[in-house]
Amino acid sequence: MVFGKGKTKKENKASEMNTPAVADGEQATAPAKAEVASTQTAPAKKSDTPKNAPIKPPTLDDIPDLIKTMMEEKGEKSAAATKRIYELCDVGHKQNRIAMVTSGQYDVLTPLAKCLTQDSGDGRHLACLALNNLSIPTENKRVMALGPASKDVIGGLCKVIKEDKQESYLCCICLMNLSFLEPAINTILTYSESGAPCLEDNNSLLRVLERLLVNSPSSPKAGSGKSEGVRWACGLIKNLAKSEENAKLIGKTQIPRCVVENIKNSSSPPSRWTSNSVEDFSLFVVLNLSQYPGSKDALVSAGAFDVIKPIMAEGDLQGLKATMACAFLDAPWSEFPENGTPAANAVSELMTNITEKKGKDGQYAYGVFKMYTAAKAYRDLASSAATAGSKDSMKALATPSTVALCWQIISDLILAASDDNENGSKFVPDSISAEYACQAIEKLLPAILQAAEPARKSPTTDKACKEIQQMLIKYANTVGTSGKAQEAAKKAASQIDAGVGSARPVLEISHDLWTQYRKREGQPMDNYLSQDQGVEADESGPLDFLPCVGKSGESSCVVL
Fold this sequence. Notes:
single chain; mainly alpha; two-stranded antiparallel sheet; disordered N terminus
């Protein structure tokens, strides 16, 4: 008997639409963290046991026999064993998932990957469901994406997508789950059936995903297998596009044009886009691709700026993503709504939330955005404002709190790079984030160093100038600081040192906020204080034998 044939078309459709569900412990407001698990009920099989006899539920001890059946048998017997494997890791047995993959006692991945190549839909469908559930725990991702069976798993999932099977969307979800492990994203994207470079192999995952998007109807029916396939393919690409190497590869395909078209052809306003919708995923793809030169050019050619520019005015998560993407695409300052104030506020708030390890209610969770992305957006906004040549434009970005945050990012990196970082920061920035923060400061110095009106002297400003100047010099000399960052740091240090002698409110207040932060964190307060106080000498020393200095310290020299 063939499994699953007893359902009506209507029941099958409803089941398919309800299959993807947000994983346990994840909020729907955190798009980049919304891992997906299938909770679909596996096809039922008529029992061969007596009518009223209870069916014994499977246990982990049954796995070796089930694996043997899956590898050696075909048809109904193999599908029945696959069903039992699925039941062991379904929503009611989450506690088994890690042990099934990482314990080293079983190899369930190889037989499940083998089932993906079956022509029969039942075994293939059950294998997709099981792999989806097993791909959710963080502990399992490395084994599944980088372990001995990874090529079989990724290859099997890719094959189902390539053949446009009804389980294609489940395979995209499974790969998306695995791609939350960032060290694995290059391995996943560059999978090639032939072993050739992925751009040269029409059966590579990259080319398969490209064809899926290119061949999709312009307006697929919502909830259909085709629309779900496109949706979760975009979710997968969103994760895979997080590295510069991957973004460059994606930029050489038609994927950038396709995701821009997804946004352009949306029938809903951005304020109504739901988390994990095709539009939400597509805008994330644009955001990630816009950060890197190769893929950025592909977006420009696809007309991305004109499509996402109106979204900046939304002011919510979609508005934040569009704002950062427009900054990465070198949008002129005049293109940002309300003289850039909402853009500056949104990106500054994001940077603050990242350092404080929190999200924003109803929009994004902590971890959705990386500091280097937010800092780069801030740097590019600063460049746009500086190019506009108006101090009023720069003032929107150079608020004391945000400038203080830049001092914090730079100084925390210095502490992290030092041998003695016992009193370091709870948030340790990466070198790229510190570089972007320093470059932003250098661009915004005309606003940061603006003198008080009326002009006056301020010892507090003078102290702030000296300490920040020393900090920037120390950053320039820190191992690992790039040439561009060194240049920006030295330029900024020179200009800030020249600011001594006049009160500069923004610099003074930002220095005070930075000082308060260091005190709260218990960081050393004398790291950047100048030690050039001069050296005091007395008569003692290697020349005290001279006749002008006696034993008593009294001079016997005669003044003529």
